[in-house]
Amino acid sequence: MEFCKQFNAATADMEKGTPIPTKITVFADKSFTFAMKSPPATYLIKKVLGLKSGSKEPGKITAGTITRAQLEEVATIKMADLNANDMDAAVKIIAGSATAMGLEVVEG
Predict the structure, then answer these.
(1) pLDDT tens-digit series, residues 48-63
(2) What is the span of the domain harbouring residue 54?
(3) Do residues 19 and 51 share a domain?
(4) pTM of the predicted model, to two decimals?
(5) Do both 95 and 69 map to the same domain?
C-alpha cells in the first residue's frame, strides 16, 4: 500500500494513462525503492504525431512522416534513458524506433 501512495505522489503531475516503466527493488526488511524512467519512445512518437498506432506492415505501408524537429522533441524527453552521448546519436535512436513503426523520417 505504501508503494501505491509514493508512486501516485511521484506521478501526480503526469498525464493520466501514460505508461511509466518502473524498476522496483524490495529488500528483506520489506522496505523498497523504485526508479521511474521516461515513457517508451513509441508512445512519445505517437503522442507527438497524434497517431493512434504505427503501421501494421512497416517497410511496406507508411503510417506517416516525422521530421527531425519532432525526433529531437522526443529525444529530449528520452535523453536520460538513452545510451547516447549527444543529441545527434539520440535522434538516430529515436529515428530507428520511428522507422520500425512504419514512419518515414524527413528533414525539417
Answers:
(1) 999 998 889 888 888 8
(2) 41-106
(3) no
(4) 0.85
(5) yes
